[in-house]
Every structure is written in structure tokens, then in C-alpha cells.
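Escalated from tier 1: zinc ion holo job.
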Amino acid sequence: MPDYVIQRSKRRSISLTVRPDGMVIVKAPLNVPVRTIDGFVESKKNWISSVLERNADRIVLKESVPYSLAELSEKTKSRIDDFMLNYPGKMPNAIKVRPRKSVWGTCNSKGTISINSFAGALPDELFEYIMIHELSHLEVLNHNKYFWNLVSYYLPDWKERRTKLRRYSIDI
Ligand SMILES: [Zn+2]
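Tier 2 regenerated the structure:
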């Protein structure tokens, strides 16, 4: 059975979570005996191992490891500038850099692109994918086939890049 930590409180049911660092947390009512909790964890052991396996591939980007948020934003801005020097397509009206928890970039109908401050910490191929994705939205605002055709024009391997990008998460 996996190791776990019990957090008891005035609650009615038992719940189980696996934290990104791999710690298994069981939240339980005050009066439930440990053997009941053991049984509960045992019954979930396959699910727990699948979550742990998935987590093993995950890369969590954090502020201050290795850069502070301000440094990250600067780095991201200069990567964007470098990227735009060679970009031959339609130009945005503005590119903003903002820390976001779960979105790498956005593009609105006014032609303003917003890029996550943490994007500058990604490998080149993933940074490029985010840029091409958002810049392509200047032509096609939704994710229809014309949009993906345009992305493919610049990055024929965009699907692989998108899959790799999904391994990354942001902790802010
Ligand atoms: Zn999009």
C-alpha cells in the first residue's frame, strides 16, 4: 500500500489526493478508524500509481527556480523580441507578458497577444509553438482547420510540440 498522510477534520467523507510532489493525502472525518482508511487507500492503489506515473513526466515551473518572476518576464520579453525579428506573418498590435497559472498565451480580436511570463523558461521548440499559435490567431481567431493549417505551415510538427508542452505546469 502507498504511504499516505491523514488530515482529519469535521467532514463527512474520505477523500484522497496525490500532490504534484507525490505525497498522498487522505482527508478523513474525525472518527473513522485507521483500518477503514487503509482499506480506502488500498482500494485506490491502481489509481494512485497511475497518477504517480503521470506526475513523473511532469515539469513544474516555479517563480524563483531558477529565476524570479521579474527576471522571467524580462527573459520572456527579450525572447519575444528576438522571435518577432524573423517572423514574416501578420504583426500584432501589442504583445503583453503576464504571469498566468494555466494559459500559455492568448490573442484577442483587437490583435493584442498576451504571453505567459513563464514561457521564457521553456525550451525553444515549445516557446516557438506558443508564439506561432498566438500569432496565427491574428489571422484565424478560433481553432478551426484553417487555423491549424496556418500553424502547420510554420511548424509541421506542432502536434508533438503541443504534447510536450502539456507536461509543463506552472506553480504560482
Ligand atoms: Zn489558441
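Helices lie at 34-43, 45-56, 69-85, 124-136, 145-154, 158-165.
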